[in-house]
């Protein structure tokens, strides 16, 4: 292992780069040196430019692969060799083309919704699409709805256990509120309770 290679390896270790990144960077610098058959310390901006053209035109590497080679060359020049260059100008990175997302036309959206089985699914997906919801947001909303439904069902079960003859829980609630209290004047407060009133002169509790 040459002194320059050892120095670059130590610089990457000090900066806590992953072992995979260290190996990839060293491989790119080794290829760079082999291409010119010289030490990278003796190569300047013109050689770097020529090597980038070689990667793009001769080897026809993908943009992402060239980006990795550029990152390795930048690390070597800026950190290990401490070159007083404007690194972004001397070692430019290729532009990455960003693809626009596919946007369906109104006719395609209608045709897609018509393929769904049942009104329920069409309404659900139409709402999600119209609100521009992402899949994680939809799943989060569905999870909250399921938790709410479970809580309501658990509450109903508690009411049934407390009053098995009264599934709605109306009588038990009325007895716990209106029928057990009197007003400040001493008058029975059951006169305000619509569930316990049979007639104008009779009460159920």
Describe the protein's architecture and organization.
- Helices cover 60% and strands 0% of the residues.
- With 205 residues, the chain is mainly α.
- Among the domains are: 3-90, Orthogonal Bundle (DNA polymerase, domain 1); 103-134.
Query: Describe the biggest sheet?
Result: none
Number of strands: 0
Number of discrete helical segments: 9
Average pLDDT, rounded to a whole number, is 78
Distance N terminus to C terminus?
97 Å
| Structural classification | mainly alpha
* Beta-strand proportion: under 5%
Give the SSE string: HHHHHHHHH
How would you describe the shape? Answer: elongated
Segments where pLDDT lies below 50 for 5+ residues? 171-185, 189-205
CATH domain class of the domain at 3-90: Mainly Alpha
Radius of gyration: 37 Å
Fourth CATH level, the homologous superfamily of the domain at 3-90:
Tyrosine recombinase, N-terminal domain
Percentage of residues assigned to helices:
55-70%
Q: What fold name stands as the CATH topology of the domain at 3-90?
A: DNA polymerase, domain 1
CATH architecture of the domain at 3-90: Orthogonal Bundle
């Amino acid at each position: 292992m040459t002194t320059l290679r050892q120095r670059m390896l130590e610089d990457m270790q000090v900066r806590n780069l992953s072992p995979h990144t260290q190996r990839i960077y060293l491989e790119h610098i080794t290829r760079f040196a082999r291409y010119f058959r010289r030490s990278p310390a003796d190569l300047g901006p013109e050689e770097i430019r020529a090597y980038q053209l070689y990667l793009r035109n001769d080897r026809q590497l993908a943009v992402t692969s060239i980006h990795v080679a550029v990152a390795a060359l930048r690390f070597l020049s800026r950190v290990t060799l401490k070159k007083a260059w404007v690194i972004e100008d001397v070692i430019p990175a290729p532009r990455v083309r960003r693809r626009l997302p596919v946007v369906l036309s109104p006719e395609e959206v209608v045709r897609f919704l018509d393929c769904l089985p049942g009104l329920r699914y069409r309404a659900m997906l139409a709402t999600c699409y119209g609100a521009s919801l992402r899949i994680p947001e939809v799943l989060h909303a569905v999870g909250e709805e399921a938790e709410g439904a479970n809580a309501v069902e658990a509450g109903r079960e508690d009411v049934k256990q407390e009053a098995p003859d009264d599934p709605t829980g109306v009588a038990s609630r009325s007895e716990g509120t209106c029928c057990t209290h009197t007003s400040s004047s001493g008058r029975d407060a059951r006169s305000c309770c619509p569930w316990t009133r049979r007639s104008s002169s009779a009460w159920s509790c």
